[in-house]
Write a structure and sequence with these properties.
single chain; alpha+beta; Glutamine Phosphoribosylpyrophosphate, subunit 1, domain 1; seven-stranded antiparallel beta sheet; 14 strands; disordered C terminus
Length: 274
Amino acid sequence: MCRFVVYRGKPVSLARVISEPGHSLIEQSYQPKEMTVGTVNADGFGLGWYNRALESAPCLYTSILPIWSDRNLPGLSRHIASDCILANVRSATPGFGLDQTNCQPFAYERLLFMHNGFIENFRDSLVRKIRDSLRDEYYRVIQGTTDSEHIFALVLNYLHGREYTQQTLIVALQETVAQLLEWTHGRQMHMALNIALSDGEHVVALRFANSSSAPSLYYLPNSRAFPDGVVIASEKLSADPEWRTVPEGNMVTCSDAFDVRVTSLSCPDATEAA
């Protein structure tokens, strides 16, 4: 299981999100508290952020090194700021190689995508189905071997022809999960799908599993550490008592710190104001 963190709000340095919190993403890479599979996240990492004043496409920085061993990252992260940041540390699923193409976040046009979880027996069960369902342009997006990147390509397939809005991102994730469930129905295949998706303005994060408990996922809006932002993370970054659990089978959506909602995966209109 990987660990990820998402920030949306007033611009902050990357370091504020990935290294400065007490239980930062860097600490989670070597001392995670809530991983159910694996013990460390040392198989690479990735950062994605936006500078929409320059261009709408996100910036990416990925590596197959453990995040704690990158000598360039501390300086870069202190001097780069953004209002939308997605970061991931990787614990590779056996059989999915240590290659930079397998490091998240994945990017396409204005989108960034991360997945924490797994699809059981992915290579033998769903690779062909997913690839056969894709339009050519999204088939060509796949550069690596992971289930995560194939899920992203499926999301892109459902977004085809749609303007990127919070609602279209939500619907694309719903349709993707529904299709995966249809393909695995009756086959007793375990799936864990904690997903974060952003176009730089909107963020949608999903917590879902089809059998055992889904991986942990939390959110923290308007905190003392991030007074003008919201953080979504696999593990709590601090001891702040205001951290809230994303219920299983739900999504948390936000466009800024003052518009945070928890939404049922199956009933997008049944929202609970955060």
